Amino acid sequence: MSSLDISSSCFNQETKLPLSPPLVEDSAFEPPGKDINEVEEKSKDIIKFTSEQLSVDEVSQLVISPFCGAISLFVGTTRNNFEGKKVISLEYEAYLPMAENEVRKICSDIRKKWPVKHIAVFHRLGLVPVSEASIIIAVSSAHRTASLEAVSYAIDTLKAKVPIWKKEMYEESSSWKRNKECFWATSD
Amino acid sequence: MVSRCQVEVLYFAESAEITGIRSETISVPQEIKALQLWNEIETRHPGLADIRNQVIFAVRQEYAELGHQLLLLQSGDEIAIIPPISGG
């Protein structure tokens, strides 16, 4: 697949953040006791932050495995309204190296809890038109329960811990949003 | 007398809007309580008082609450101001 470009246009570049490699793919889990007759496929965690439009097809293809009977997906999309106000557009920013590390921790936790094969977490950054996907999570597993539960855990934990921010722009104002799951600022 | 070091402070989301900058290098004691560090930063940017009850630090990319725990810092360390998150 083509790897990409955390486009510099969506960040303020005076930030001296070391931008992490845009696409990180590695083997997170080496299955023990390889049988010589068994061509075991390495498990992958695929994490990407991008200013490009997300594709459900692309992300679900990445986790396909002949060892798996299930792929579970979560697609988060941007809403067009908030408390009666019309949302014109949305903008996401992230603390990139840390956000990627936090997602990697989530992948690692998932592998301790469920027997899953591949995990893909893609998050959109920059300006996102209403109704487009802001996040896609895909997990494959031999049987459906593991990947269904893992996807649910992944989105809940991401909302609580991964340093990403969303600003909604309305017709006459704007607002930084707050996830109810955010662990240090649960109430006003 | 605790010696000082130069750390990089990163501002995100609302904190970047309030300060008008995304990052700056500041001189701080090598040993400092998280809350004292916040107070030093707030002195530089008084507008941050509005969000002090809602933010958390990330020190070398690990979360640290604005409490009384002692931070041991070295020059070059990265300290991010993390307002409430809204990813997903």
From TrEMBL, chain A:
Gene Ontology molecular functions: molybdopterin synthase activity
Residues covered by region (Disordered): 1-35
Binding residues for substrate: 143-144, 159, 166-168
Coiled coil: none
Catalytic reactions on record: 2 [molybdopterin-synthase sulfur-carrier protein]-C-terminal-Gly-aminoethanethioate + cyclic pyranopterin phosphate + H2O = molybdopterin + 2 [molybdopterin-synthase sulfur-carrier protein]-C-terminal Gly-Gly + 2 H(+)
Main location: cytoplasm
UniProt keyword terms in alphabetical order: Cytoplasm, Molybdenum cofactor biosynthesis, Transferase
EC number: 2.8.1.12
Alphabetical list of InterPro entries matching this protein: MoaE_sf (IPR036563), MOCS2B_euk (IPR028888), Mopterin_biosynth_MoaE (IPR003448)
Gene3D superfamilies (alphabetical): Molybdopterin biosynthesis MoaE subunit (3.90.1170.40)
Matches recorded under Pfam families: MoaE
Pathway annotation from the record: Cofactor biosynthesis; molybdopterin biosynthesis
Domain of life: Eukaryota
Keyword Transmembrane among record annotations: no
Subcellular location: Cytoplasm, Cytosol
Any GO CC annotation of this UniProt entry: molybdopterin synthase complex
Top EC class of this enzyme: transferase
Note: This protein is produced by a bicistronic gene which also produces the small subunit (MOCS2A) from an overlapping reading frame.
Family the entry assigns: Belongs to the MoaE family. MOCS2B subfamily.
Task performed by this protein: Catalytic subunit of the molybdopterin synthase complex, a complex that catalyzes the conversion of precursor Z into molybdopterin. Acts by mediating the incorporation of 2 sulfur atoms from thiocarboxylated MOCS2A into precursor Z to generate a dithiolene group.
Known partners and oligomeric status: Heterotetramer; composed of 2 small (MOCS2A) and 2 large (MOCS2B) subunits.
Protein name: Molybdopterin synthase catalytic subunit
UniProtKB/TrEMBL annotation, chain B:
Molecular function terms from GO: molybdopterin synthase activity; nucleotide binding
Alphabetical GO biological process terms: Mo-molybdopterin cofactor biosynthetic process
InterPro entries per UniProt: Beta-grasp_dom_sf, MOCS2A, MOCS2A_euk, Mopterin_synth/thiamin_S_b, ThiS/MoaD-like
Alphabetized UniProt keyword annotations: Cytoplasm, Molybdenum cofactor biosynthesis, Nucleotide-binding, Phosphoprotein
Protein's UniProt name: Molybdopterin synthase sulfur carrier subunit
Assigned GO CC terms: molybdopterin adenylyltransferase complex; molybdopterin synthase complex
Gene: LOC111167063
Function: Acts as a sulfur carrier required for molybdopterin biosynthesis. Component of the molybdopterin synthase complex that catalyzes the conversion of precursor Z into molybdopterin by mediating the incorporation of 2 sulfur atoms into precursor Z to generate a dithiolene group. In the complex, serves as sulfur donor by being thiocarboxylated (-COSH) at its C-terminus by MOCS3. After interaction with MOCS2B, the sulfur is then transferred to precursor Z to form molybdopterin.
Modified residues (1-thioglycine): 88
Residues found modified as Glycyl adenylate: 88
Pathway noted in the entry: Cofactor biosynthesis; molybdopterin biosynthesis
Subcellular location: Cytoplasm, Cytosol
PTM description: C-terminal thiocarboxylation occurs in 2 steps, it is first acyl-adenylated (-COAMP) via the hesA/moeB/thiF part of MOCS3, then thiocarboxylated (-COSH) via the rhodanese domain of MOCS3.
Miscellaneous comment: This protein is produced by a bicistronic gene which also produces the large subunit (MOCS2B) from an overlapping reading frame.
Assembly and interaction partners: Heterotetramer; composed of 2 small (MOCS2A) and 2 large (MOCS2B) subunits.
Main location: cytoplasm
CDD domains on file: Ubl_MoaD
Provenance organism: Delphinapterus leucas
Family listed: Belongs to the MoaD family. MOCS2A subfamily.
